[in-house]
Amino acid sequence: MTIMVKDILELEVFKSHNLLAGREGVTNLVDKVGIMDHETEDMIIGSYDQGEFVISTFFFIKDDLSKLYGYVEKLIEAKVSGLAIKDIYLTGIPAEVIDLADKNAFPIFIFNEVFYESIITSIVDMIKDKENLQNISLKVDHILSGNLNATAVKKLAYEINRYFQDLHLAVFCQMTNGIESKSEIQYRRRFKPYQKLNSLIPYNNGLLIIFSFNQLNKDNVESIVLRRLNDIGLHGRDLHIGVSSLYQKLDQLYFSISESLYACKLALAGHEGISFFNQSGTGRILIPVLDNLWVKKYCQEMITPLLEYDQKHDTSLLQTAINYVDNNGDIKATSQNMFQHSNTIRYRVNKINMILSQHNNIQDFYEELSIAIKLYKLLHSEL
Q1: Would you place residue 111 in the very low, low, confident or very high pLDDT band (cuts 50, 70, 90)?
Q2: Residue percentage of the chain with pLDDT more than 90
Q3: Residue 200: pLDDT above 70?
Q4: Are the beta carbons of 191 and 232 closer than 8 angstroms?
Q5: Sheet holding 199-203, edge to edge
Q6: pLDDT-based confidence at 382, cuts 50/70/90?
Q7: SS3 at position 39
Q8: Which H helix or E strand runs over 224?
Q9: Which residue(s) pair with 34 in the sheet?
Q10: Cα–Cα distance between 99 and 103 in angstroms, integer?
């Protein structure tokens, strides 16, 4: 499992770093760290590997710093991920070296007051931590495969965290564009007070949190979850959050994790900050069957006629249908929401009914429209 150069910059040992060049290379992958302390230019190829992050003082060229260009050129050729220079002999780098690094997206840093050992240990620990999290993520995938019996699920749960208690719930958090590495590190730091009985796992471009409890008053579940998320820095205003039901047995982890993912998708589809699965109404039924071909076919048959009519006549029947369902079939509330007269909304709803009746054997207009619109929103959310 590799990390990126930008992940390294979040380490405490790099708090005094100064990025001099190659800013576009901060996404370069790092899978090891090495020291340059005596090598000549012709020794670089073969001495350093692709993805290696190199540290040096360059004391061996302190009397002729013009050689730095050749060294950087060779490091780039070796596909090294980046270079950190301790400012004993170099406090800056020549303009031509900066230009070379910028053109090749090769990050070069200057740092001070930190021992090599501290940097190496911190980077190696971060790589190991990433590897461990990747392994845990794979265990989550295994649980969600749905092919395991209760004993196997519980065994995997204890492999994720041997201190898990039976009483538990899951929370899944996702930003629209995914959780940034900087944010992830900050969340993990703030999660430390909770880490014994609970786990925070980077998963599916988001964060999966499994909270377990020795005991818990069911009436306080929502407030406790919200308080913990706030302590970690996970706010509904920043991202979409899905919370599962509270489960009594750890071997039910498949259901709790699945519900948290479903609830997050419901939050995303409804443009909400947080969604509790057990409060999501028909969403609890619809979202687990989204991948069913017949469900998709039903949604397409209901929505396509409205889309085609809107495109042909430059109208907004689909948007009206969405607002109408969002307002539980209330004409007045829909008109207020869309800044239209009630008669206009009533006319559009009748038009929607007529179009759908022409294309589908509608038995209950509002019921079927409601299901189709909810499916459409879920299928077009970005999770």
Answers
A1: confident
A2: 54
A3: yes
A4: yes
A5: 199-203, 206-213, 167-174, 240-243, 274-276
A6: low
A7: coil
A8: helix 221-232
A9: 54
A10: 6
Class of domain 145-282: alpha beta
Q: Residue 290 — very low, low, confident or very high, per pLDDT cuts 50/70/90?
A: confident
Q: Tell me which residue has tokens 């509270």.
A: 246
> Two tokens at 62?
């302190």
Q: Could you give the dihedral angle defined by the CA atoms of residues 153, 156, 275 and 324, in that order, rounded to the nearest 10 degrees? A: -50
* Domain range annotation of the chain: 3-122, 145-282, 290-379
Task: Name the CATH superfamily housing domain 3-122.
Answer: HprK N-terminal domain-like (3.40.1390.20)
Contacts of 67 (CB under 8 A, 6+ apart): 41, 61
- 3-class secondary-structure state, position 269: helix
Torsion sign, CA atoms 122, 124, 130, 135: negative
Contact between 312 and 323 under an 8 Å Cβ cutoff? The reply is no
Does the predicted model carry a pTM greater than 0.90?
Answer: no
CB 244 within 8 A of CB 263: yes
Residue type, 225: V
